[in-house]
Design the sequence.
């Protein structure tokens, strides 16, 4: 089914069958703690005991009037996740081949729309119980790259596929955006061309999930 988006478009939701929802929840309960133990503090979206409100407070604390921010969004994120790359990331922490096979079956299960079945070669359907965890596992690569290589450029705050980087200078923000583009390309994703921008917090505010305006 489809739900309306703020920009006038539509967001596709893949609704699993009842049996799949039950098994996805059981699987999530088992594997989520395994990956949670390694997730970074910069990630706030759809995690236990974490919320958008906490993310906004963290960004506000990091912001100083006059600083620059990279306001980024990944284009059609859930629709473009690469299955093979995602499974390879799962294999780093999960050794049970039956669980890996089950997750791959969910990814490639396809969707039925107006009575017609269509295969899913890429992406993780939004609406699945386990989809948000898989999405965080995939973008954990970005979090790790940032923590290990690019933290000197600024602070990263991510909520699912939307994220901001708070930098001290415009030059750092430009370098941060280049670094993000490189990591996103490694993940076979693309930044949204109109929603991704550099923001001078001394003159304007953010229009993303943070919704902060600094005067």
Sequence:
């Amino acid at each position: 089914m489809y739900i309306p988006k703020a920009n006038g478009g539509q967001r596709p939701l893949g609704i699993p069958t009842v049996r799949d929802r039950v098994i996805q929840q059981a699987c999530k309960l088992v594997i989520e703690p395994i990956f949670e133990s390694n997730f970074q503090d910069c990630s706030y979206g759809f995690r236990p005991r974490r919320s958008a409100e906490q993310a906004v407070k963290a960004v506000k604390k990091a912001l100083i009037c006059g600083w620059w921010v990279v306001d980024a969004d990944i284009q059609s994120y859930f629709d473009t996740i690469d299955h093979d790359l995602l499974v390879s990331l799962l294999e780093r922490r999960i050794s049970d081949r039956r669980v890996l096979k089950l997750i791959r079956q969910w990814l490639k299960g396809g969707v039925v729309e107006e009575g017609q079945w269509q295969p899913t070669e890429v992406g993780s359907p939004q609406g699945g119980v386990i989809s948000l965890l898989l999405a965080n596992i995939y973008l954990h690569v970005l979090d790790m790259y940032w923590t290990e290589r690019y933290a000197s450029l600024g602070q990263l705050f991510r909520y699912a596929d939307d994220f901001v980087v708070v930098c001290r200078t415009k030059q750092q923000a430009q370098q941060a955006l280049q670094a993000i583009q490189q990591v996103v390309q490694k993940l076979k994703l693309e930044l949204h061309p109109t929603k991704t921008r550099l923001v001078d917090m001394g003159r304007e505010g953010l229009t993303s999930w943070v919704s902060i305006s600094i005067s």
